[in-house]
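INTERNAL AUDIT FORM
Audit reference: QA-55
Scope: verify that the stored structure record matches its stored sequence.
Auditor: D.O.
Record contents follow.
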Amino acid sequence: STSAGRWTGEAVVSTQSTGMQGMSAHTIQFVDAHSRAVDDISETTDRSVKEMYSLLSKASTIQKDLVKVEMMSSHLKSINKYLERLDNTLGAVKVPSATPAPPK
């Protein structure tokens, strides 16, 4: 309250106390909101890192499997070349006729 438009000491202290209580309440709310945001970011980051390691593990497994597939492909190509050579060799060999020769 004022007396003739002037603030009394008690009124100033009361106004300041009310203002500081409001600021303290807002500060607590802001700190809580910040804490929740940090926790959410931490959990999201942790989950993302775990998923990244899982993905890297799967990619490594796929890479190892691809190496095996490439080796098998190389072996199959070699086998195919040998089969073609065998086929060409057998095709060049004259097999005697199964029909008996005419009597003399």
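Auditor finding: record pair retrieved intact. The mean pLDDT is 89.
Action required: none
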